[in-house]
Write a structure and sequence with these properties.
The structure is a single chain. The chain is built from six helices and no strands. By secondary structure, the chain is mainly alpha-helical. It has a single domain, classed as Ribonuclease iii, N-terminal Endonuclease Domain, Chain A. α2 crosses α3.
């Protein structure tokens, strides 16, 4: 068995991206009846690099030292590509955000993830 603390930040981000996307989709599907085009547009706002950057800015004061450490590990990981519609800073922050969520998921902290994502969907406002 692999020690999660030794996993690369990109591996954690791989899991965190899936977890966040699923929870955002579940939130919109269970909150109201939307057609698929609306569901997709709303979801993309949250799961894009820009949306994740905004989410991280919103929750940064709620995070534990451990969560911040995993965010920073992911944020500081260099990737070869950058998202089309995001700045380098947004892209790095989104990788950090996903790494943190991946760490929480792989260490069984599902209630913490639900709290964080719930806080985001209740408080993140897009213009």
């Amino acid at each position: 068995m692999v020690d999660i603390r030794e996993q690369s930040p990109l591996s954690l981000a791989f899991v965190g991206d899936a977890v966040y996307s699923l929870l955002i989709r579940e939130h919109f599907v269970t909150s109201k009846r939307y057609n698929i085009n609306v569901l997709n547009k709303m979801t993309v706002r949250y799961v894009s690099a820009h949306g994740q950057f905004m989410a991280m800015e919103l929750i940064k004061d709620l995070l534990t030292e451990e969560e911040i450490a995993y965010f920073k590990r992911g944020q500081n990981t260099s990737k070869a590509t950058v998202a089309k519609n995001a700045s380098v800073a947004e892209y790095r922050a989104s990788t950090g955000f996903e790494s943190m969520l991946g760490y929480l998921k792989l260490t069984g902290q599902d209630e913490r993830i639900k709290y964080i994502v719930g806080y985001i969907v209740e408080n993140l406002k897009f213009e």
